[in-house]
């Protein structure tokens, strides 16, 4: 195993990245937040002028690549932020520079920004030959051909995110287990074709068994029925072919899987808000959606796109979850807000959707999710597990409300 990377090495690599105006470098210009390293994964944000966020995406990608190419780095989550004045980065505190990191899957890293979720790949269902018939044009208002109900399944909820790598799948699993802890019978469907995570998150291997009548027996983990694209699509299948396959595979996973009686089926959606996601949201008979975001303001722009996407297809948003809210140092217990803090709560309030809760960035979330022992079952008394349980409780309450005719209509105040 290679040596653990240090903050100094990361900073040295970042000195090669020119600042937004092409002058100096992003380190010298004081644009970086605190750099946190846990077990070979590096997290930080770069302050930019929000008006230039799109134009500076290349700078973000360059910074991420520069860090990822360092020996000992397994992944990097780099975001652009506008919530901090350049040069006012918090004073460095001890980072949880763990013992050098393993345990992450060898597959495409969820941190890989060039990978799944950043854009819908060519051949995505909205564009490619696999575009399902009769679903209306993605982007078209009010085109919700409610998907065919799945026999035995009372409610289907989607867990979605505006972009990849924000912890959507980890949240989906812990939310599902939280719902189970509330006494519900739960299934989880991993619809993330570009980077199926359930085999890793639930330590599942193998293929589902075929039953009579062309039905598939879902796999099982922690008392939940589980189905994943990862069980059906060969890892070797090139991305470009996966898009066209997704719709038939998805409808197969809904219709042709012996789900049995379920109170809730949690669907882990592919990240993003492109055509593929919109088409999926239209095709699945969703009772509600949960949006996962990091607190950082530009990520919230993506979260907002997620909200709009569900609005377009008339699916109630049960609420927003703020993930990686605060970093808790495993050594000193100190807290720091790498990506800001409280942004999602504020955004939820602003948009009039429920805020379901916040989950800190901790080593235990990462370790347990990457080793297939989700925190809600492996350490139910830990702080993040309690946060997930509370999120599940609130989501269940919102679901009941949505099913019972929806949230109370907002009061209309007449301006004098
Ligand atoms: N609160 C957290 N604290 C620490 N690590 C976390 C937290 N949430 C998620 N992670 C880690 O971040 C990585 C990405 O998480 P995950 O796979 O759930 O994200 P995702 O949004 O589903 O990604 P993708 O879009 O690539 O599928 C994983 O290594 C996971 O263990």
UniProtKB/TrEMBL annotation:
**Region Disordered, annotated ranges:** 83-150
The cofactors named for this UniProt entry are:
[4Fe-4S] cluster
A GO BP term here is: iron-sulfur cluster assembly
For this protein, the record's InterPro entries field holds: FSCA_dom_sf (IPR034904), MIP18-like (IPR002744), Mrp-like_CS (IPR000808), Mrp/NBP35_ATP-bd (IPR019591), NUBPL-like (IPR044304), P-loop_NTPase (IPR027417), YlxH/NBP35 (IPR033756)
The positions annotated for binding ATP are 162-169
Keywords, ordered alphabetically: 4Fe-4S, ATP-binding, Hydrolase, Iron, Iron-sulfur, Metal-binding, Nucleotide-binding, Transit peptide
Compositional bias annotation for Gly residues? 125-137
Tell me which residues make up the MIP18 family-like domain: 7-78
Q: Which GO terms describe its molecular function?
A: 4 iron, 4 sulfur cluster binding; ATP binding; ATP hydrolysis activity; ATP-dependent FeS chaperone activity; metal ion binding
Question: Which Pfam family name is an example for this entry?
Answer: FeS_assembly_P
Specify residue ranges for compositional bias: Polar residues.
Answer: 111-120
TM regions (residue ranges): none
State the family it belongs to: Belongs to the Mrp/NBP35 ATP-binding proteins family. In the C-terminal section; belongs to the Mrp/NBP35 ATP-binding proteins family.
The record's note on quaternary structure and interaction partners says: Homodimer.
Q: What does this protein do?
A: Binds and transfers iron-sulfur (Fe-S) clusters to target apoproteins. Can hydrolyze ATP.
Kindly provide the name given to this protein in its UniProt entry.
Iron-sulfur cluster carrier protein
């Amino acid at each position: 195993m290679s040596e653990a990377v240090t903050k100094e090495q990361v900073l040295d690599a970042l000195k090669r990245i020119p600042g937004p105006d092409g002058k100096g470098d992003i380190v010298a210009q004081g644009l970086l937040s605190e750099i946190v390293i846990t077990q070979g994964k590096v997290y930080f944000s770069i302050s930019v002028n929000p008006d230039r966020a799109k134009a500076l995406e290349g700078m973000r990608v360059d910074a991420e690549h520069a860090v990822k190419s360092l020996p000992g780095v397994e992944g990097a989550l780099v975001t652009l932020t506008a919530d901090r004045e350049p040069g006012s980065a918090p004073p460095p505190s001890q980072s949880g520079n763990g013992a050098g990191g393993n345990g992450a899957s060898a597959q495409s890293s969820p941190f890989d920004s060039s990978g799944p979720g950043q854009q819908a790949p060519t051949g995505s269902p909205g564009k490619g030959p696999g575009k399902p018939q009769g679903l209306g044009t993605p982007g078209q208002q009010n085109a919700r051909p409610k998907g065919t109900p799945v026999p035995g399944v009372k409610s289907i909820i989607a867990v979605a995110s505006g972009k990849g790598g924000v912890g959507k799948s980890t949240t989906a699993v812990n939310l599902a287990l939280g719902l189970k802890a509330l006494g519900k019978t739960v299934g989880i469907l991993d619809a993330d074709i570009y980077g199926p995570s359930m085999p890793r998150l639930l330590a599942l291997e193998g293929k589902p068994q075929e039953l009579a009548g062309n039905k598939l027996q879902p796999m099982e983990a922690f008392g939940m029925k589980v189905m994943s694209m990862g069980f059906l699509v060969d890892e070797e299948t090139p991305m470009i072919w996966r898009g066209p396959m997704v719709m038939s595979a998805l409808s197969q996973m809904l219709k042709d899987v012996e789900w049995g009686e379920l109170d809730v089926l949690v669907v882990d959606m592919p990240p993003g808000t492109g055509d593929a996601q919109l088409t999926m949201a239209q095709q699945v008979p969703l009772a509600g959606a949960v949006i996962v975001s990091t607190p950082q303001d530009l990520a919230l722009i993506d979260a907002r796109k997620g909200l709009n996407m569900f609005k377009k297809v008339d699916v109630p948003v049960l609420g927003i979850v703020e993930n990686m809210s605060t970093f808790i140092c495993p050594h000193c217990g100190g807290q720091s807000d790498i990506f800001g803090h409280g942004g999602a709560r504020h955004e939820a309030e602003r948009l009039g959707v429920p805020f379901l809760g916040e989950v800190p960035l901790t080593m235990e979330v990462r370790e347990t999710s990457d080793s297939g022992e989700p925190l809600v079952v492996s350490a139910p008394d830990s702080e993040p597990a309690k946060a997930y349980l509370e999120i599940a409780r609130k989501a269940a309450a919102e679901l009941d409300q949505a099913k019972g005719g929806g949230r109370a209509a907002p009061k209309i105040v007449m301006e004098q």
